[in-house]
Design brief:
Blueprint (H helix, E strand, L loop, with lengths): L1 E5 L3 H12 L3 E5 L3 H8 L10 H10 L3 E4 L11 E4 L14 H12 L5 E4 L9 H6 L3 E4 L9 H6 L4 E4 L3 H10 L7 E4 L1 H32 L3 H9 L21 H14 L7 H22 L7 E5 L14 H11 L3 E5 L16 E2 L11 E4 L12 H4 L6 E4 L6 H6 L3 E3 L6 H4 L8
Parallel strand pairs: 1-2, 1-4, 2-3, 4-5, 5-6, 7-8, 9-10, 9-12, 10-11, 12-13, 13-14
Helix pairs in contact: 1-3, 8-10, 8-11, 11-12
The protein binds uridine-5'-diphosphate-glucuronic acid.
Length: about 425
């Protein structure tokens, strides 16, 4: 099938490469000339695992092409996918202006086939365009996790399609024929709201486990045991329950949860549960610093090593990264920080660049008084800590994402501190909150 994909960001590029690998003929429209040039020469302008290799393969097989404008025989394309950004507006709602610009373009060109919205948009926000244009709108929300996006494309939990006509259903089923997943067909509005619902459910799960882990911290319980108990209840399930000391991040959860709240408000439903969840999550980096202050005397004068800055492993995305926020707070406090991230260069640090000792590998961040591991990159979960133990003066490793192997750290002669598994008594018996 011949398809056009508008936008070569995280979603658009994965969608385009994925469709090309399924054998479709894909043309990507990217208005940013620098990005276009890079893509044309087979370079992905951001890091997403496996994407660069897959893109090069598709360029060679001529299944994918990049252009600046959608023009010419536009109706030879059976579908146009909209994958442009929908950031938060200043009121926490969803800014759909980039999508509107694509619609205007399609209307101007008299595009007559299917327009598929992949971007996350509030139900009903773009309905007018169907009346203005001569095409049928389809909603096909994405459920791609940055860092595993290609895998999520080929092995999705389900494919969601919101549509009106039988013809649209036939086309969409044909499009995804090579993917072994259940296809859930519903109305456009339901599909669009389902995307918000999924992200809000996931974010609320993390919010709750983070709260429970915080309580486990102060009562001296172990969150790993608690997750095992909770997760073994099949009504709850054990996935996506890893607590984080610094909260969840990324460009999706905070933005989408706030947009859902705003949508409810605009339609006359006032939710009291949703927004506080995001407010609390955005305070987590500060709460983590409070915890550090409580556990470490004279924090301001310590030398700290930080491993990991991106919001998630296997991505170089710093948007809404709680790790970056922690770094910022420490630097503003005057703490001496050495930092490393496998995928982020110093040019990405903006004003922080001059104030941080930015390192090319994790070993360079040491010696330090203690270590903060802030992103769940696999390379941080060392096989053995023997080689670094002498370079961590206070013998303390903080695992903000609870993903490191605690036993290995302890075997290496270091104290482990996660969330909900922090042995505060052992850290400083005189100052324990548990007394
Ligand atoms: C999220 C959803 O998981 C995707 O299904 C959705 O398509 C995407 O948003 C989107 O709307 O585009 P993403 O934000 O890319 O994906 O990444 P996740 O892997 O979900 O991680 C989000 C945050 O939660 C990260 O900061 C991660 O460290 C944190 N997290 C994740 C935890 O703290 N604990 C966990 O158990 C899992």
């Amino acid at each position: 099938m011949k398809v056009a994909v508008f936008g070569a960001g995280y979603v658009g590029l994965v969608q385009a490469v994925g469709l090309a690998k399924l054998g479709h003929e894909v043309v990507v429209i990217e208005i940013n000339p620098d990005r276009l040039k890079e893509l044309d020469s087979g370079r992905v302008p951001f890091f997403e695992e496996g994407l660069q290799e897959a893109l090069q393969e598709m360029i060679l097989s001529k299944n994918i092409k990049f252009v600046e404008r959608f023009e010419g025989e536009v109706n030879s394309f059976e579908m146009a996918f909209i994958c442009v950004q929908t950031p938060s507006d200043e009121h926490g709602g969803c800014d759909v202006s980039a999508i509107e610009a694509v619609f205007d373009n399609l209307i101007e060109l008299s595009f007559k086939n299917f327009v598929v919205i992949k971007s996350t948009v509030p139900p009903g926000a773009l309905d007018d365009y169907e009346e203005k244009g001569d095409f049928e709108l389809i909603a096909n929300p994405e459920f791609l996790r940055q860092g595993r996006a290609l895998r999520d494309f080929f092995q999705p939990e389900r494919i969601v399609i919101g549509l009106k006509s039988e013809q649209a259903e036939v086309k969409m089923r044909e499009l995804y024929k090579g993917i072994d997943a259940e296809i859930l067909v519903m109305s456009v509005k339901s599909a669009q709201l389902a995307k918000y619902a999924a992200n809000t459910m996931l974010a609320s799960r993390l919010s709750i486990i983070n709260e429970i882990a915080g309580i486990a911290d102060v009562v001296g319980a172990d969150i790993l045991d608690i997750v095992q108990v909770v997760g073994s209840d099949s009504r709850i399930g054990g996935k996506f329950l890893r607590p984080s000391n610094i909260g969840f991040g990324g460009s999706c959860f905070p933005k989408d949860v706030l947009a859902l709240n705003k949508l409810g408000e605009m339609c006359g439903y006032k939710s009291t549960l949703i927004k506080p969840m995001i407010d609390l999550n955005s305070r987590r980096p500060e709460m983590f610093i409070e915890k550090l202050k409580f556990l470490i005397d004279d924090l301001e004068n310590k030398k700290v090593a930080i491993w990991g800055l991106s919001f998630n492993a296997n991505t170089d995305d710093l948007r809404e990264s709680p790790a970056l926020k922690v770094l910022e707070i420490l630097v503003d406090m005057g703490v001496q920080v050495s930092a490393y991230d496998p995928c982020i260069g110093i040019d990405r640090l903006g004003y922080l660049a001059d104030r941080v000792n930015f390192c090319r590998n994790k070993e360079e961040t040491l010696p330090a008084d203690f270590l903060l591991v802030l992103t769940e990159w696999e390379e941080f979960d060392l096989e053995t800590w023997d080689k670094v133990v002498d370079k961590i003066r206070m013998k303390l490793v903080f695992d903000a994402k609870n993903f490191l192997d605690r036993a290995r750290i302890e075997r290496g002669g270091l104290e482990y501190c996660g969330i909900g598994i922090c042995k505060m008594d052992a850290l400083d018996p005189g100052r324990s909150r548990l007394d």
